[in-house]
Structures are given as structure tokens and as C-alpha cells.
């Protein structure tokens, strides 16, 4: 028998999370799948879906500030996300189907810490910062240092992910997102990649590439970023970046794909991204 | 056990359940057999219901989160006034084969047409992306939804 709490403020939720057996839940689209597979039951759950502090998207001094409780349906329709964070809007539209997007939250995608989480490469490419709330108050952490190992995060006991803050990309920042799966919709990624870059005098600057399903956590593709920085995004640069990306990852064979296919597909996606860059 | 009140296809029901029990099981135990379990993990859309007007997989909703909510199942969709258009378009276009996915498709299509009475092909494809048809009759299902939209527009 589970005790289900439905707090209506972040403070109450944090107090309830002081119970070491309490599990935070939101859209439950990953949680109930794992529950069914393992047969586990929870002694206590704390439902985050009624917390106003976790809702909404707003612009705040050059930052797009996203509530951890925003669903992917909300994100893909949000005017600020659509105009400034096109790669996140694209990712939101490819996560599960409509039913999943109506329930699954950005915060859940982050905290669930799957290496295949589709929104996560976007957070790397756009240099997101996470706002965490706990009994000691709130703290901020770069998203890049949040996922520490397979399914291991920097979240402390009882802490909750509250907001995701993304520096508003300049109007000249170019963004891309691509998920490679077994079918176009409703498939877990074999490879998922996001990229952002800007162009100055025809050369690439501020290149950031995030990729998932290639390692125990989502990863930056620093070698490919290095190859592209300062380069004109021509066909040769695209080929060099593809080779660098393939060389720097060590994917695994698993139920969804093979290491060989993942490496090959990753290179193709990176090459296509670079060839698609327009000033 | 805790007590949960739901409105299912317009009828109020009260159940004593573990709060983490799946909405899917609660609905079926309450007699709403039009809600079908397929994969049980949110991949197939067979158990799609509307939760306060939004399509969701009933297999991934703990019942406590549906407390006080209005649920519409395929039975509710078909009973609703003016919804004959979708059912008859599914029959006319041959959008029903083995029938396992049909209740979920009917609920999702109903939600789409409520939101967007004149969807184009891409909008229908996007809306139905979370409903799998193992008979692979997608083209006929797609045509049925487009036909229903046209029929409803002409009727109104």
C-alpha cells in the first residue's frame, strides 16, 4: 500500500521528500514502466504535478527559464520555446507519441537519467543550468555535470529539480536536433544528437554538440566541436566533423542497436547538420 | 487502500484502490472494457483514454492522479452526439482490421478532431503517432479520420 502525497507548494514537497522512502513522481511515464518490469511497490510517493513553482516557461534577463514540470506537449507548443529553442521544440515533438507528450515532463526526462533521454543532448548543446531545491534552499548546477554515471545524478537525497535555465540563444545561433530510431515516431533512440553554433565572418563559433545513447550518460562531442570551431561549414568541414565524432565515442551493442551502426549513424547526422548550416 | 472518485464517460464512480494502481486496471475493473491493454508500457496506445480532455495511456497513470478527473473511453467517444461520423468513416474506409487498436485510435482521433476540426494528413499522422496498429492498416485509418473530419464539417 502506497501513501500518495499531492503537495501544492514546493516547500511542502521538499518537506515530504525528507522521508527517505519517498519517491518523487510527475508524469509517471518512465516510473510505471519500471514498476511493471520489476514488480516493485513504493511506500510513499510525492506528486510534483501540482507545484506552481515547477510550471511555465518565462524569459528572465536573457535566460529562457523552463519549469521542470512542463510537459513535452506544453514545450512543443510554447511560443518562447518555438522561437528561441527550436531544437528543444523538435525534441519535445519526437518523445513518444501525443499520449506520452501530454504526461512526460522535461524534469522527469532529466532526473530519470536514461542515456537515451531525447531532450538531454539539447540541454548539452544549449548549455542549460539546473535549479535544484532542497531543505538547505536552492542551488544551481550546470546540466553538463548533473549526469555523473549510468543513471547516477548529482541530485542529493530529498532534493528536487525545479527549473531548467537556458541562456537565450542569439538570433544568429543555429540549432539542430535529430533522433535516429527504428521508426520515425514512438521509438527509443539508437542515436540522438543536438547541436548549436553561431557564425562570425563565415566561420563557426560557440560550437556545442550533445549526443545520447552512446555512453552511460549523454555526452558532449568535444573533438567534433574542436574540428568545427573557426571553420567555414563546407563539405570538407562536415566530413572532418563526422570522422571526429565517430572516433571520439565508444558506444555499445545492446538490444536497440550495435556499436557499429551507432557510430556510422552519428557521423551521418553530424555531417548533415554541418551541411545544413546557413547564416 | 484509499478512496478515489472518477467520472468515467459521464458516470461518477468511487473506488477503493492502492493509489499507484494503474488507471487501466481501475477502469477495466469498473466495467469499462473498451480500454484495452496492449503493451502496458506506453508504446502502443491501445489503452488511450482522455484524462481531462487530453489523450493519455491509461497504463501509465496511477489512479490517484486521476482523482476527481473526467475520463473518456472509447465508449464515451462513440456515445457522444455527432460522433457517428468517426465510427462510420472507420467502417467505410476499412480502418478496422483485427480491432485491437481501434478503441485507442477512436479516442485519439476524437481528441484530434475536437482540437482541430479540419486536420491535414500531417496533423493526423502526428496525432496518431502513439497508436500502433499491428495489422499496419495505417493508411486506411488515416483516410478514415480525414473522412470523418470532412463529414463533420459538411454536417455542421
What is the CATH top level name of the largest domain in chain B?
Answer: Mainly Alpha
The total count of helices of chain B amounts to 6
What is the helix content of chain A? 25-40%
Percentage of residues assigned to helices of chain B: 25-40%
Shape descriptor of chain A reads globular
Radius of gyration of chain A: 19 Å
Supply the CATH superfamily name of the largest domain in chain B. Answer: [2Fe-2S]-binding domain
Major sheet strand order of chain A:
4-5-10-6-7
State the name of the first-level CATH class of the largest domain in chain A. Answer: Alpha Beta
The most extensive interface between chains reads: A-B, 31 and 32 residues
Low-confidence stretches of chain B are none
Instruction: Please tell me how large the radius of gyration of chain B is.
Output: 15 Å
Q: What is the fold-level CATH name, i.e. the topology of the largest domain in chain A? A: Uridine Diphospho-n-acetylenolpyruvylglucosamine Reductase, domain 3
- The second-level CATH architecture of the largest domain in chain A is 2-Layer Sandwich
Major sheet characteristics of chain B:
5 strands, mixed
Overall pLDDT of chain B? 93
How would you spell out the order of helices and strands of chain B?
EEHEEEHHHHH
Structural class of chain B: alpha+beta
Main sheet properties of chain A: 5 strands, antiparallel
Give the averaged pLDDT of chain A, no decimals: 95
Strand fraction of chain A equals 25-35%
Description of the structure:
The complex is a heterodimer of chains A (279) and B (156). Chain A has a five-stranded antiparallel beta sheet. Chain A has a four-stranded antiparallel beta sheet with strand order 11-12-13-14. Chain A is of the alpha+beta class. The longest helix of chain A is centred in the C-terminal third of the chain and has 17 residues, at 259-275. Chain A folds into two domains: 3-167, Uridine Diphospho-n-acetylenolpyruvylglucosamine Reductase, domain 3, CATH 3.30.465; 174-275, Enolase-like, domain 1 (2-Layer Sandwich). Chain A is globular, with a radius of gyration of 19 Å. The mean pLDDT of chain A is 95. Chain A has eleven helices and 14 strands. The termini of chain A are far apart. By secondary structure, chain B is an alpha+beta fold. Chain B folds into two domains: 2-76, Ubiquitin-like (UB roll) (Roll), CATH 3.10.20.30; 80-155, [2Fe-2S]-binding domain (DNA polymerase, domain 1, Orthogonal Bundle). Chain B contains six helices and five strands, in the order E-E-H-E-E-E-H-H-H-H-H. Chain B has helices spanning 23-29, 74-79, 84-93, 102-115, 121-127, 138-155, and strands at residues 2-8, 11-17, 48-51, 54-57, 70-72. In chain B, strands 2-1-5-3-4 form a five-stranded mixed beta sheet, sandwiched between helices. In chain B, a hairpin with a 2-residue loop joins strand 3 and strand 4 (54-57). Classes of the chains: A alpha+beta (279), B alpha+beta (156). At the A-B interface, helix 2 and helix 6 of A face strand 4 of B.
Amino acid at each position: 500500500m502506497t501513501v500518495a502525497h499531492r503537495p501544492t507548494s514546493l516547500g511542502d514537497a521538499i518537506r515530504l521528500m525528507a522521508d527517505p522512502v519517498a519517491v518523487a513522481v510527475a508524469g509517471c511515464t518512465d516510473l510505471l514502466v519500471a514498476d511493471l518490469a520489476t514488480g516493485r511497490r513504493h511506500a510513499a510517493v510525492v506528486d510534483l504535478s501540482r507545484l506552481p513553482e515547477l510550471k511555465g516557461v518565462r524569459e528572465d534577463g536573457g535566460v529562457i527559464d523552463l519549469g521542470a514540470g512542463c510537459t513535452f506537449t506544453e514545450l512543443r507548443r510554447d511560443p518562447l520555446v518555438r522561437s528561441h529553442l527550436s531544437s528543444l521544440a523538435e525534441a519535445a515533438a519526437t518523445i513518444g507519441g501525443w499520449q506520452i507528450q501530454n504526461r512526460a515532463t522535461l524534469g522527469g526526462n532529466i532526473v530519470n537519467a536514461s542515456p537515451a533521454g531525447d531532450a538531454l543532448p539539447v540541454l548539452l548543446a544549449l548549455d542549460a543550468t539546473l535549479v535544484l531545491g532542497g531543505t538547505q534552499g536552492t542551488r544551481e548546477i550546470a546540466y553538463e555535470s548533473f549526469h555523473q554515471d549510468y543513471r547516477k545524478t548529482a541530485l542529493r537525497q530529498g532534493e528536487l529539480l525545479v527549473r531548467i535555465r537556458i541562456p537565450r540563444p542569439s538570433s544568429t545561433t543555429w540549432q539542430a536536433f535529430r533522433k535516429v530510431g527504428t521508426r520515425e515516431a514512438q521509438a527509443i533512440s539508437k542515436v540522438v544528437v543536438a547541436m548549436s553554433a553561431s557564425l562570425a565572418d563565415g566561420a563557426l563559433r560557440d560550437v556545442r554538440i550533445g549526443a545520447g545513447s552512446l555512453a552511460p550518460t549523454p555526452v558532449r562531442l568535444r573533438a567534433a566541436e574542436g574540428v568545427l570551431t573557426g571553420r567555414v561549414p563546407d563539405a570538407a568541414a562536415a566530413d572532418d566533423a563526422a570522422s571526429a565524432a565517430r572516433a571520439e565515442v565508444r558506444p555499445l551493442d545492446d538490444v536497440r542497436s550495435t556499436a557499429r551502426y551507432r557510430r556510422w549513424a552519428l557521423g551521418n547526422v553530424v555531417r548533415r547538420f554541418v551541411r545544413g548550416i546557413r547564416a | 487502500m484509499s478512496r478515489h472518485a472518477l467520472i468515467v464517460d459521464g458516470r461518477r464512480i468511487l473506488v477503493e484502490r492502492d493509489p499507484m494502481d494503474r488507471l487501466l486496471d481501475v477502469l477495466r475493473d469498473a466495467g469499462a472494457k473498451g480500454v484495452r491493454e496492449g503493451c502496458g508500457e506506453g508504446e502502443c496506445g491501445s489503452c488511450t483514454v482522455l484524462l481531462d480532455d487530453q489523450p493519455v495511456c491509461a497504463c501509465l497513470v496511477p489512479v490517484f492522479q486521476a482523482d476527481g478527473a473526467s475520463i473518456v473511453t472509447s465508449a464515451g467517444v462513440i456515445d457522444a452526439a455527432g460522433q457517428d461520423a468517426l465510427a462510420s468513416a472507420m467502417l467505410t474506409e476499412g480502418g478496422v482490421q483485427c480491432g485491437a487498436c481501434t478503441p485507442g485510435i477512436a479516442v485519439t482521433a476524437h481528441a484530434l478532431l475536437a482540437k482541430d476540426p479540419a486536420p491535414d494528413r500531417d496533423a493526423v499522422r502526428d496525432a496518431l503517432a502513439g497508436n500502433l496498429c499491428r495489422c499496419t492498416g495505417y493508411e486506411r485509418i488515416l483516410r478514415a479520420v480525414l473522412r470523418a473530419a470532412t463529414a463533420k464539417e459538411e454536417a455542421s
